[in-house]
Amino acid sequence: MQEYLIDTQDALQQLCEQLRGSEWLAVDTEFIRERTYYPRLCLIQVCNGEIAACVDPLRLEDMQPFLDVLFDGSILKVFHAARQDLEIFWHDWQQFPLPLFDTQPAAALLGHGDQVGYANLVNQVLEVDLPKDQSRTDWSARPLQEQQLRYALDDVIYLGQLYLEMRGRLSDRERLQWLAADFATLADPATYAPEPSTAWKRVKGRQHLRGRQLAILQLLAEWREIEARRRDLPRKWLLKDDIMLELCRRQPRKLEALANVRGMDAGLVRKEGRQLLDLVLAGMERPKEEWPVEKRRPKPLTVQQEVMVDYLGAALRLIAAEHQLSPQAIATHKDLQQLVRGESDCALLSGWRRAVAGEPLTQLRDGDLTLQLRDGAFQLVQ
Question: Which end of the chain is less crowded, N or C, counting CB atoms within 10 A of the terminal residue's CB?
Fold first, then answer.
């Protein structure tokens, strides 16, 4: 394996010439975002099975030759837990490196568990123990240390090996096509730009607010989201969750009352106080029919519904065994409860899980299928 640190334009050009025409590229990124809203890209690693390189965007003036390779539609790009990596590509270049393959959802289809980490997956599949000592390193510091480069290169060297091994297993089991919906979601710009009007749903402690208080929270959280993006600052640097909640409860109308809120920064009151008061007032005056509604905890299941959950759980174990998967990789107990309640946002009703288990379990719930004992074995029967 040829290994490189690419921090000059000449070296980048040579690397791109070597990578062109590759069948696939394992790709990873290193970034920091402690002081920003958007992640700040510090390193891109690539490997095609013969060449592994760390490309340093902080030292390169023109990344375009490399981007041309990454955005080449004839080369498959392999990631692990791709969402954060793809967020960087979309924010910095408004483009995704397509087509793509993500080894994390693929791992679930091979019985390695849902949301498995990279190091654990490498250990399970390749029996290699990767060090984790650089996972909290400062990737913006230069020069990069030897340990950092080793860690970064390993992230793509073994990723490529994972892909080749997992692709073969998935192909043998005719499961490659099951991942299409997962990959389509990863390549959807809407995945990375949630509407500011829904930002209130991610505020911790919101479940303790009611009615008009939630109307105020929605406006405050929307303002914070828009301003954090515009200024490229962490949301909580502008306004912390607990302070927002307190504003919703106290509903101050004057700057003096705003300044007396515990934890309120004097500089924030001076610079943004009038804006915050206007938002509180606007929320208070919003008509009831426009108040946001916090999703309530569902009512406890009836005895009949609890029996149905157990019934579906037994069928799920049969389905999982048939497909050589763990039941947990397909559905959680909560997923089964949602299915019994008829909730449309149940994870079992999307992607590959719908075809494998969601549809038969729905038929079982509705009585179109039954679980019967035949010839000493349980079967799903119409």
Answer: C
- Interatomic CA distance for residues 203 and 243, integer angstroms: 11
Beta carbons of 342 and 361 less than 8 angstroms apart: no
Contact criterion met (CB below 8 Å) for 223 and 280: no
Average pLDDT over residues 364-379: 91
Q: Helix H segments across 204-302?
A: 212-231, 235-238, 241-250, 255-259, 266-285
Whether 77 contacts 84, CB under 8 Å: no
Give the residue among 148, 315, 101, 288 at the shortest CA–CA distance from 212. Answer: 288
Question: What Cα–Cα distance (Å) separates residue 165 from each residue in 1, 28, 88, 117, 170?
Answer: 18, 18, 27, 17, 9
2-192: CATH number: 3.30.420.10
Give the DSSP H/E element, type plus range, for residue 37. none
Cα gap 193→180, rounded to integer Å: 21
Structure-block tokens of residue 280 = 């509180």
Q: Cβ of 73: how many Cβ atoms within 10 Å?
A: 8
Least confident of 144-153, 289-298, 364-373: 289-298
Residue 287: per-residue pLDDT:
96
The domain 196-290 is placed in CATH, from the list 3.10.450.50, 3.90.1200.10, 1.10.720.60, 1.10.150.80, at 1.10.150.80
- List the chain domain ranges: 2-192, 196-290, 303-381
Question: How many CB atoms neighbour CB 178 within 10 A?
Answer: 20
Which CATH code fits 303-381?
1.10.150.80
| Distance from C-alpha of 81 to C-alpha of 154, rounded to nearest angstrom | 16
